[in-house]
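To fix ideas, we reproduce below a protein record of this kind.
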Amino acid sequence: MSCTERGGRRTGPFEGGATCGQGVEFSPEIIMSSQHMIRVLTVDDHPLLRGGISGAINAQPDMTVVAEATDGDEAVACFRVHRPDITLMDLRMPKANGIDAIAAIRKEWPTARIIVLTTYGGDVQALRAFKAGASGYLLKSMLRTELVDTIRLVHAGHRRIPQEIAVEMAQHVADDALTSRELETLRGVASGSSNKIIAEHLGISEHTVKGHLKSILSKLDASDRTHAVMIALKRGFLDM
């Protein structure tokens, strides 16, 4: 287990975007008045994306990437070594996932500032990330225009939630949560298992499985099993 140290200045494909999506602007005077560079750890299992992110950050006058990690375990190890000001964390990675890594880092360093970078905008996944200790949440489609300003916002002690994610979270805030047993049942459905196989795997009766499925369809407002799985994947109940 190791992390890659970074240094120097590079430019990359995500440069640009001086105004945050929330309308906060940063003047050169504010940027250059910083007492020290914002030291960033990037965590993602895709090397091209890590390279692009590092290039965009290192092109800024007030930021530098100090290390890169490829999974959640490496993220925790890198944080111990470098103690970055900001950690950019992907969620779906091999070995330990991003949410587990966020929780582990925040357990040791409660003031750590972590920004989630993800392809998936599900409200359930976002809520889990914030409960684990994330301070910001960005979709990877927003990197070109909002990455560097989000880093500055979070470094200054603010939180960042894209409007579309916040709206979806608000829409579902009063929904009944799926129980752990219902989630296990839904994972079985997503894997293509029959009610009988799910029942055998969970050590319950087929009648109980049917009861769980009825409750799942109601809570997710789904028309059938397939629809329920699609909704669960979109919202982040399932991580396939």
Residues 8-34 have pLDDT under 50 and may be disordered. Residues 103 and 132 are 5 Å apart (CA to CA). The chain is about 50% helix and 10% strand.
